[in-house]
């Protein structure tokens, strides 16, 4: 593999691994905040043990997510120094705000939440988890602000061969950010809800700790139903924005080689040869692509060939077609998973409403396995977003091949790639074993909890 290919592979592997934990952290923080609020309104030993149980799972995931996230920053300097020099004055600002404000916020109040039991009042303890949840979402917001600039550069000017920020508020008002962040945030909330549902379903299917997990299960279904449906709706808005901002990505996600007819159909599945542009077989729904793109039955969508000619005229000679096969199927799997999540969550709500969910052990066992659906869907969405942007590392400004560090030997990249893979494999094994251990123990294995009391220290004394 070339130096660029290896650097991309290393960053892709480490980022995907890190992104396994981020949505779970965001979603579970909000689920814990809701459970904690309910406990504050009605404190019981059972409620506290349930919170402690899910809190352990959250903390294990949070710790691994933080550790794997730190590595991303080093890769900007190690393998992507040309990119960092070119756009660091813009890209670095949102990341700095994320570290100094959002991450410190969630870390500080997470410490209060962990050590604050019986030291602060239930109201302050619940508030600390809400601030953790807000902090995790703010972290995502600032990171996506940086990523949105890579997708749709705004608020900059080129000075002496590198980008300099001219308007920080233009970054915050980036149209790409305001379709990307809601979609990612809602997907993260759905992920946390499905984790809570899956763990609760594990016990409900075995008729263990039913009274402990009935409430988290029902709460998870409510959150998952709302967020899964909203993810689909917001994703529709994001797809429409791609038609304007990155039409090549949209064309690649549809394997649309030639500009569509006035009434464009959408391919449910398609088997094609990316090299020859030949499609062997395709199952299409008439008019649907025009509806998705323009909210009406008519509307042409530019094809890959036409956009290639346009980009050559605009940016100069080169190949501007992203990996179509990966982009196309990642988009399809993301959509399929999104609809499966919505169907399963709404189905569960119907069973709960009828009071028959405990009579459906197959559904409960299915929801245990469905825990992996949003995690896989998040990865597919990330792959589609980043791979579909190629060959650009910053769309329209810098190509990926120009952002790589020029003097890092291929052997060094191989060594770090293999080393990171081995290290992450060990970390993954440890995390999975810890999670399974605490899940199997259940909430009954928690330390003895004193009965709730109404006498608490003042906030000042507690802190």
Summarize the structure.
The protein is mostly helical.
Question: Can you offer a commentary on this structure?
Answer:
With 463 residues, the chain is mainly alpha-helical. The chain has one domain. Helices cover 71% and strands 6% of the residues. It has helices spanning 3-19, 22-41, 45-78, 81-115, 122-151, 168-172, 177-205, 210-245, 247-253, 288-294, 304-315, 324-354, 361-369, 372-387, 400-403, 410-441, 459-462, and strands at residues 156-159, 162-165, 266-273, 278-285, 392-394, 398-399. The strands form three sheets. The chain has a two-stranded antiparallel sheet. Helix 2 (22-41) crosses helix 7 and helix 7 (177-205) packs antiparallel against helix 14. It is globular. It holds the Pfam family Cyt_bd_oxida_I. InterPro entries: Cyt-d_ubiquinol_oxidase_su_1. This is Cytochrome ubiquinol oxidase subunit I. Keywords: Cell membrane, Electron transport, Heme, Iron, Membrane, Metal-binding, Transmembrane, Transmembrane helix, Transport.
As a whole number of angstroms, the C-alpha radius of gyration is: 24 Å
Strand order, biggest sheet?
A: 1-2
Count of domain modules: 1
Strand content: 5-15%
Count helical runs: 17
> What distance lies between the first and last C-alpha atoms, to the nearest angstrom?
55 Å
- The geometry reads as globular
- Taking pLDDT < 50 over at least 5 consecutive residues as the criterion, the unreliable ranges are 448-463
- What does the average pLDDT come to? 86
Percent helix: over 70%
The chain-level structural class is mainly alpha
Topology pattern, helix = H, strand = E: HHHHHEEHHHHEEHHHHHEEHHH
Main beta sheet strand tally, sense and closure: 2 strands, antiparallel
β-strand number: 6
């Amino acid at each position: 593999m070339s130096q660029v290919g290896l650097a991309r592979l290393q960053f892709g592997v480490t980022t995907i691994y890190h992104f396994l934990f981020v949505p779970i952290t965001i979603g579970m923080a909000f689920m814990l905040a809701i459970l904690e609020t309910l406990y504050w309104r009605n404190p019981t030993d059972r409620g506290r043990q349930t919170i402690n149980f899910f809190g352990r799972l959250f903390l294990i995931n949070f710790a691994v997510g933080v550790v794997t996230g730190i590595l991303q920053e080093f890769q900007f300097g190690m393998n992507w120094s040309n990119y960092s020099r070119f756009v660091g004055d813009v890209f670095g600002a949102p990341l700095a705000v994320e570290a100094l404000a959002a991450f410190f916020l969630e870390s500080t109040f997470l410490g209060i939440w962990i050590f604050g039991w019986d030291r602060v009042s239930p109201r302050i303890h619940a508030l600390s988890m809400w601030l953790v949840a807000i902090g995790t979402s703010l972290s995502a917001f600032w990171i996506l602000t940086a990523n949105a600039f890579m997708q749709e550069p705004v608020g900059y000017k080129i000075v002496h061969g590198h980008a300099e920020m001219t308007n920080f508020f233009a970054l915050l008002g980036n149209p790409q950010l305001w379709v990307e962040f809601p979609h990612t945030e809602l997907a993260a909330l759905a992920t946390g809800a499905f984790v809570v549902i899956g763990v609760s379903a594990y016990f409900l299917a075995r008729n263990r700790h039913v009274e402990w997990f009935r409430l988290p299960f029902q709460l998870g279904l409510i959150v998952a139903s709302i967020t899964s449906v909203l993810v689909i709706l917001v994703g529709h808005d994001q797809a429409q924005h791609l038609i304007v901002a990155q039409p090549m990505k949209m064309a690649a996600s549809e394997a649309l080689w030639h500009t569509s007819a006035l009434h464009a159909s959408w391919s449910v599945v398609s088997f094609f040869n990316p090299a020859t542009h030949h499609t062997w077989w395709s199952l299409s729904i008439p008019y649907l692509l025009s509806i998705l793109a323009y909210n009406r039955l008519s509307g042409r969508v530019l094809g890959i060939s036409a956009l290639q000619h346009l980009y050559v005229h605009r940016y100069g000679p080169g190949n501007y077609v992203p990996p179509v096969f990966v982009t196309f199927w990642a988009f399809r799997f993301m959509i399929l998973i999104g609809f499966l999540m919505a169907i399963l969550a709404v189905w569960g709500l119907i069973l709960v409403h009828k009071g028959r969910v405990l009579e459906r052990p197959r559904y409960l066992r299915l929801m245990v396995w469905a825990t992996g659906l949003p995690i896989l869907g998040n990865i597919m969405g990330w792959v589609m977003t980043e791979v579909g942007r190629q060959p650009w590392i910053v769309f329209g400004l810098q190509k990926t091949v120009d952002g790589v560090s020029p003097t890092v030997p291929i052997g060094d990249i191989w060594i770090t790639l293999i080393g990171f893979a081995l290290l992450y494999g060990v970390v993954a094994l440890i995390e999975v074993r810890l999670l399974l251990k605490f899940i199997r123990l259940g909430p009954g294995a928690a330390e003895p909890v004193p009965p709730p009391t109404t006498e608490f220290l003042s906030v000042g004394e507690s802190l």
